[in-house]
Amino acid sequence: VYPKYSIDELRDLATAFSHRLNAGYCYEPSTKIKSRTTLIRAGKAGFDKKLGNDYRLNQVCETPVNVLVMDGSHHCFYERPLELAIPKMINDIFTV
After folding, report:
1. What is the residue-wise DSSP string for 38-72?
2. What is the reported pTM?
3. Intra-chain end-to-end CA distance of the chain, in Å
4. pLDDT by residue for the chain (96 residues), tens digit each?
5. Separation of alpha carbons 30 and 59, rounded Å
6. Do residues 28 and 56 make contact, with C-beta atoms less than 8 angstroms apart?
7. CA contacts within 13 A on the Cβ side of 87
8. Contacts of 55 (CB under 8 A, 6+ apart)
9. DSSP character string of 17-46
10. Residues 6+ apart with CB under 8 A from 50
């Protein structure tokens, strides 16, 4: 599927991704985030079915999490960022 990457590179990427997922599942916060938090997530990723709309960030944040859902999968973040106005959204988050 990704001819520009070798089998070793793909294995390393998959292993790194697996380790990140495991770190997230095992994370036990000692305190809650006090600042405003915004999650920009892909609408077709499917993680919300198991983790909820805010990917369980409400468990580690003191204030409600602002969730912005993009149309598409995770690939939309780098395939169509301007079409989806992602840079503008990020700028708006920091200027509020």
Report:
1. EEEEETTS-THHHHTTTTTGGGTBSSPPEEEEESS
2. 0.68
3. 41
4. 667 888 899 999 999 999 998 998 888 888 999 999 999 988 887 777 788 889 889 989 999 999 998 887 777 777 888 888 888 888 988 886
5. 11
6. no
7. 6
8. 39, 41, 47, 48
9. HHHHHHHHHH---SS-B-S--EEEEETTS-
10. none
- pLDDT given for residue 5 in this prediction: 85
Q: How far is CA 94 from the centre of its chain?
A: 18
Place of tokens 């790194």: 16
Contact 55, 68 (CB under 8 A): no
Q: Specify whether the CB–CB gap between 40 and 86 falls below 8 A.
A: yes
Site of tokens 């997230």: 24
Q: How far, in Å, CA of 89 to CA of 24, rounded?
A: 25
Per-residue pLDDT at 1: 63
Q: Are 68 and 39 in contact (CB under 8 A)?
A: yes
